[in-house]
Amino acid sequence: MLSYIIVIILGYALGCSSMSLYISKFKGVDIRERGSKNLGASNAMLVFGWKHGIAVALHDIGKAALAVILARLIFPDLPNAGAVAGVASVLGHIFPFYLKFKGGKGFASYYGMTLALNWKLGLVIGIIIVVATLVTDYIVVGTTLTITLVPAYFGISTRHWIMPVILLIATAVIVYKHRMNYVKIYKGTEIGLRSANRGDHRA
To answer: Is the whole model's pTM more than 0.85, yes or no?
Structure first.
């Protein structure tokens, strides 16, 4: 039990790091008051442009991947240590303690966790994300496909329920955090990726 607690703390601490906040402070613009008002990569792209959005995404992907890798290295014999650390990192990104538990929506970190758990699956998911986003113009579509396909894959490949259930914790939270995106898509008011790059939405 102590080992799992350490893994959770490790993953959560890494997840709390926020490149979006760092950029926001540097530019003197509170990203939490713009766009979708969260600290995720998607909102960074909407508010600051695609270059900053990519920087945030790489950071968020990297911190979750690092959590998985470190957990496996420190506790090589601990079952599902990587998945636990990865999910903890995703939750740390979404609920950072020093920001009143108001962070990003967790997708980039979820993808980073996926890459570290199985890089081949991560590459396939990456292609799916790009295609889905380009076809629909909505990042949230790729997000939804990722967070549903990943637990399903591990459930089928491992033929065991523990790892998928661990991953579904993060899936459920991310779905909840994106609930307004689904509503906006239905209403036709969601900001598309191409509109974000043109800056049509900016104040």
So the answer is: yes
Residue 150 lies in a domain: yes
Which range marks the domain in which residue 152 is found? 2-198
Does residue 100 belong to any structural domain of this protein? Answer: yes
Q: How many domains does the chain have?
A: 1
C-alpha 152 chain-centroid distance? 17
Indicate the range of 36-40, 69-73, 122-126, 132-136 predicted with least confidence: 36-40
C-alpha distances in Å from residue 78, one per residue of 67, 90, 166: 14, 20, 14
* The pLDDT of residue 31: 87
d(CA 92, CA 63): 10
Dmax (CA) for the chain in angstroms is 52
How far, in Å, CA of 203 to CA of 194, rounded?
17
What's the CA gap between 112 and 107, in Å, rounded? 9
The percentage of residues in the chain with a pLDDT greater than 70, rounded to a whole number, is 93
Residue 114: its pLDDT value, please? 97
Domain assignment of residue 164, yes or no: yes
Residue type, 126: G
The reply to whether 83 falls in a domain is: yes
Range 171-192 burial, b when 16+ CB lie within 10 A, else e? bebbbebbeebeebbeeeebbb
